[in-house]
Every structure is written in C-alpha cells, then in structure tokens.
Amino acid sequence: MPRAGHPGGWGDCPGAAGPGTTTGAPAPPATGHDHGAGLGEGHGEGHGEAHRAAHREAHSAGHSQGHEQGHGHGHGAASPAGRRVRRLLVALLVPCVLATLAGVALLWPGATPVPEIPPTQQVHGTVTTVQVADCSPGAGDRRCTGVTVALSDGPRAGRDLVQLVPNEPSTPRFAVGDPVTLSWSGANPDDAGSYQLVDFQRGAPLGWLAAAFALAVVVLGRLRGFAALVSLALSFVILLWFVLPAILSGGSPLAVAVTGACLIMFVVLYLTHGFTARTSCAVLGTLASLALIGLLGYLFTVTSRLTGLDDTTATLIGTLGPGVPIDPRGLVLAGLVIGALGALDDVTVTQASAVWELGAANPGMSVRELFAAGMRIGRDHVASAVNTLVLAYAGAALPLLLLFTVAAGGVTQVLTSQDVATEIVRTLVGSIGLVAAVPVTTGLAALVVGRR
Question: Do residues 436 and 303 both lie within one domain?
Fold first, then answer.
C-alpha cells in the first residue's frame, strides 16, 4: 500500500531511505521536494549528480520489497507529455509517408524504352588453349594472343571458337580453364567476327562471397540480422523496379531518387528496427538530412556548372538515342542522394539508440542533459562517418585521380576538372547532410525520451 510521501504508489520518490539503506549522510526532507521538476534543473551540477546517485540507491534498497509485491515504477501507460510527443511524431510522419506514396504513383515508370543500338547477346564458355599469334595472318608481329573458347551456350554451344586478343596493357590476360563471357552481335553464328571476348564469369565467387556475408550478418545479428538482409533485398527491388525504370522512362532523376530513397528508408528502418518511437526519430532525422542534401546538391551542381557528361553517361545517352531524354546533371544528383542514404541511416539510427540507452541508464536525465550527452557521442560518430564517406568516394575514383594527377597541370586543375569536381560535390554535400543529421535526430530522440 502507499507509503508516506508516495501518494498513490511509487510515482514520486522522496529522499527518505527505505529499510536496509546503508547509514550515511542524512536524507533530504520529503516535504515539498519534487524530483520531476528538480532533477537537472533545480540542483547544481555536483549536488544534482550526487543526489541522483543517492536517489537510485535509496530507490533500489528501499522499494525492492514493494516491487516484489507487484508495484511498477514508471512502466505503466505513457504520461500525457509522452503521448503528446508520440502524437507529434505521427503527425510529422504521416504526411511524409503519404507524400512518398503519391510520388511513387506519379513517377511510376511507363513502358521501357527500346535502345537505338540493339543490345548484344551474352554467351559463355571456357578457355581451352592460349597461344601467341599474329594479329593479321602472315604479319609475323606475334603481338596478339589466340584464345580458344569452348562455348557452353548460344548458337554454337558445344563447339570451339578462336578469338584474337591484342597483347596490350589495357587488355586482360586469359589462361586455360578461365570461365569467360563473349558478346554475340546476332550476325552469322559461324563467323568468329560476330563474337567478342569481353570478360570473365564471376558468378560463382560472388555467390560464395554473398553467402559468407549473409551468414556473418545472421550469426551476429540473429533475427535483427535476418531482417536487415530482407531489407537489403527490398532496397534492390525498389532500385531495379522503380528508380531505374522511372529514370529511363523520362522522370526527373532527382525527384525519382528522393522518392525512391524515402521509400527505401521507410521500408528498411521500420522492418529492421521495428515500429517504435526510436525508429521514428531516426526516420525523421534521415528525412530532414535528405531534403538538405537534395537542396544543396542542386544548388552546387548548378553553380559549379557540373554537366554530368562523363564517359559512362555519354555511352548511356548514345545507346538510348535522342528519343529517350536523359538529364545528365540530374543523374549526378540522383547518385548523390542515393549514395548518402546508407551513411545517413547509420548515423541517425545510432544517435537515436544512443539517446535511448542514455535515458534507460539514467532515467533522471532531463531533455537538455540527454541532448548534450547524445551530441558528445554524435561528434565522435560524425567525425568517423565523414572520414569514411570521403575515403569511400576517393577509393572509388582512385584510377581517375591517378589519371588526372599525371595528365593535368596542377592540383587546382585536377580538383576543378569535371569528373573530380563531381566527386568533391558528392562528398562535401553528403558530409554536410551527415553533420546535420546528428543534432536533428539527437534533439528529437532527447525530446521523446525526456518526456516519457
């Protein structure tokens, strides 16, 4: 039954020690001392911390019997303030979900365009012999390699095909037993000139690597890891069935990328981490950062006059022909948004979880204290995340950086060239989005946890 100073149960804990409390400094008086308003606000820093420690010790020792008899301490229905905060989260999230669904409906891809240049058919085989040969019959230069391939599919399945490969630094080296891929133009299947040896087959090693990755994720993450794998598969489904076809159908690359990124974010975060207020804080932080990244990306691609016309994009435009309008600058922005999404998810989920754990470890922390502690964690996290993002972009563009370092006239010319400047804008805009995600997510999480 309720004790003195505990009207209605154990909701307010005065300083009086319960049975079994170790004798020490006199406890503060119970009368007129409201901890709900006093913790972190009415105390000095040293006294507040000491008082909270004493409060937890007294609560643990003095109320253990009451808990054994079934009294809860703060685990019942959410307080009115907590319910108001959760209603606020719902009010913020529902319009975002509806806007995402409306964007998917409006940008849903139509008929897939037919490329002006017909695609080549891929056939497979295994290298049986490799020998030095002349590039032209009777030339005597011995500057090519004759590669005999036993075809396993296609119109010449079960037969051999000889291909001449120039001995140049830019061409791969083939050995007996290599599984290879050839492109067939669709012309006379008995004409060796209608085939071209293009690449190795990599399906088996990549499959084993994917299996090892999935096993590692499931062993460590268990059910949560399995949910993460399902989320990853759904992300690829959204990219392959919505984002890419919608862009090819003539949709704005930036609008498609933002819509697709929001859809991926909702599916991945809620499926992996559950439908909780903590996940909702991470989602809202990610949404705010994505909006900032899209805005800054558009601003600096325009002011920097980035055209997006690199070799890959030029090949895409030439393959599709003039009948399929592709916005090269929009592709830069789309890649920026989608590329930053993964790092944003990491930062926002970690920040929300950190604030939740801080609140669970010390329920007496105020919103301001939770935010300050969460920001200390966030500063360390964002520093490493930004470095990771920069190194990831630099690693992906390493051959390009080497080429411009050798060919260009100086550091300034290298950094301001079209291809390198594009990577710089991607890196810096994405990093600004990561930095902005920390205070936004931490503030939302602190507000929710501090008002529970």
Answer: yes
Contact (CB, 8 A) for 427 and 393: yes
What letter does residue 393 receive in the DSSP assignment? Answer: H
DSSP for 60-88 reads: HHHSHHHHHTT--SS-SSPPHHHHHHHHH
Q: Write down the pLDDT at residue 115.
A: 74
Residue 85 lies in a domain: no
Instruction: Return all residues near 317 (Cβ < 8 A) that are at least 6 apart.
Output: 326, 328
Q: Is residue 84 in some structural domain?
A: no
Rounded-to-integer distance, Cα 140 and Cα 255, Å:
58
The radius of gyration of the chain from alpha carbons, rounded to an integer in Å, stands at 31
User: Is the CB of residue 408 less than 8 Å from the CB of residue 418?
Assistant: no
- Asked whether the beta carbons of 370 and 359 are under 8 A apart, the reply is yes
Quote the tokens at residue 131.
Answer: 């020998």
What's the pLDDT at 451? 77
What is d(CA 297, CA 354) in angstroms, rounded to the nearest whole number? 29
User: How far from chain centre, in Å, is Cα 382?
Assistant: 14
Determine which helix (DSSP H) or strand (DSSP E) holds 224, and give its type and residue range: helix 203-238
Each residue of 187-222: b (16+ CB within 10 Å) or e?
A: eebeeeebbebeeebeeeeeeeeeeeeeeebeeeee
* Intra-chain end-to-end CA distance of the chain, in Å: 25
Pairwise CA distance, residues 413 & 382, whole Å: 30
In this prediction the pTM is: 0.71
Any idea which residue has 């000491």 for tokens? 50
Report, as ranges of residue numbers, the positions in the chain whose pLDDT lies below 70: 1-82, 408-410, 452
Rounded to whole angstroms, how far apart are CA atoms 172 and 195? 17
To which residue do tokens 């003539």 refer?
250
Specify the CATH number for the domain of residue 278: 1.20.1640
The predicted structure's pLDDT at residue 176: 95
At a CB cut-off of 8 Å and minimum separation 6, what does 60 contact?
Answer: none
